[in-house]
Amino acid sequence: MILVNTDYITGKELEMLSLVKGSTIRSKHVGSDIMNSLKTLVGGELDSYTEMMNEARAIATKRMVEEAYNLGADAVVNIRYASSAVMQGAAEVIAYGTAVKFINK
């Protein structure tokens, strides 16, 4: 499955199938949340939150690809990611794009 953030794939003619998406809501345990709160006092990267968001993007992407695969898609174009805080220490990540089939493979 080809995944791109453009609305085209060079050399391919595309038939658009449908919007596809995948999402997840992730959180860290209370211990990480307390440590990250303390770290905000001195600054720097909040490694456990970075890891959490990377994991969430990977899961959301996997779910989006599964939805595209179930439609018989060859690729997903125009992929975008969005995130929002659901509550303190928890975030939703959504990946979405357009599932397409190749015409004249």
TrEMBL record:
Database matches in Gene3D superfamilies: Hypothetical protein apc22750. Chain B
Any single Pfam family the record assigns to this protein: YbjQ_1
Source organism, top-level taxon: Bacteria
HAMAP family assigned to the protein according to its UniProt record, in alphabetical order: UPF0145
PANTHER family on file: UPF0145 PROTEIN SCO3412, UPF0145 PROTEIN YBJQ
Annotated family: Belongs to the UPF0145 family.
Name this protein carries in UniProt: UPF0145 protein SAMN02745120_1079
Source species of the chain: Acetoanaerobium noterae
